Amino acid sequence: MLNKWEGIGRLTKDPELRYTNGGIAVCNFSVACRNGYGNEKSTQYIKCAAWKKTAENISRYLCKGRLVHIEGILIIKKNNKNGRTYTNPYISVRQILFLGGEPKDKRDNNEEDDNKAPESMTKNRVVSSEDDDIDVPF
User: Fold this and answer.
1) Above 90 in pLDDT, residue 121?
2) pTM of the entire predicted model
3) Helix (H, G, I), strand (E, B) or coil at 57
């Protein structure tokens, strides 16, 4: 079985960072993804949730309007209220790529060098611990 979702879109509002009772970071946000072309354009609003260090990085570096590429899995929660069943689909983020723009920290602060984002956050690629041993040609 395969459960994988990928999409590129813009954040519809600033991410919301919270912590569980156990101290685990969770960040909720939504992304507007366009599909179609010409007169057939439409926009889908996708709810997303990220956890732990990914959640903290999203909260720190992203804001409304930022372009991102998201890879994750589709989760559908079902709630029963007043005899009716409601579904709440969202994407559980496994990996996120920040595309273009400058980090929220730099934009909010007039000092240019003090709050500079790590190089891995401003480039259009995802960095993992395996990247230390790989010589990337671009």
Assistant:
1) no
2) 0.69
3) helix
